[in-house]
Amino acid sequence: MNILLVTIGFDEKFQIRALMRRFKEIDKVVIVGYFNEERAKKALESFINVINTAGVSYELLEVNPYSFDDLIVRISKFINKNKGNRLIVNLSGGMRILILGVILSFIINYVDAEIEVETEDFKTVVSIRLKDLMPISLSNDHINILKAIKEGYVSINSLHSYLKIPLSTVWRRVKELISEGLLTEDLQLTYRGKLLLKIYESNFSMD
């Protein structure tokens, strides 16, 4: 099942735009919010009307932003119940503490999801997978292999010759990089690999 989870506050326009982008590929919308205020209730009602018009089922997940532990527990329960589903999480609206709670809940439970946020001027939607941001510890060998692959050395033998690292070590490190999602099986940098390499290179840049 493909599930779109959205956080909502006093305005529903970002949630409607997320639904319109995704409604052909999703089976269900999960609405996360706090609905004690009239403005929040009106935004929720308006969004539900659009969901019903689109013919998509929905689920309401009301949380209390003033009890952060309970918020984390409630969202975590939903996450673990839906681990086997594809989760698309739009964090373009709602209270900041609610958005933080959703992100931390996914990280704490080590569950992957596609996270998207739209800029306030509607010009850009940033989409990233949580697994690409999970912590990882890289050795110098790992970094050097990533850099060499970026430069075009895309076989075990060519990496061994270029880096002067024992063949068995190259093979082991490459397998580790693949396992961590930094390389594909045919030794291409993934988005996660490119991102971590950029961060590493920027840390050693003189600019």
TrEMBL record:
Database matches in SUPFAM superfamilies: Winged helix' DNA-binding domain
Cell inner membrane is among the record's keywords: no
Any GO molecular function: DNA binding
Record-annotated Csa3 N-terminal domain positions: 3-118
The keyword DNA-binding is annotated on this UniProt entry: yes
InterPro entries: Csa3, Csa3_N, WH_DNA-bd_sf
Pfam families membership: Csa3_N
Keywords (A to Z) from UniProt: DNA-binding
NCBIfam families: cas_HTH
The protein's name: CRISPR associated DNA-binding protein, Csa3
Gene source species: Acidianus hospitalis (strain W1)
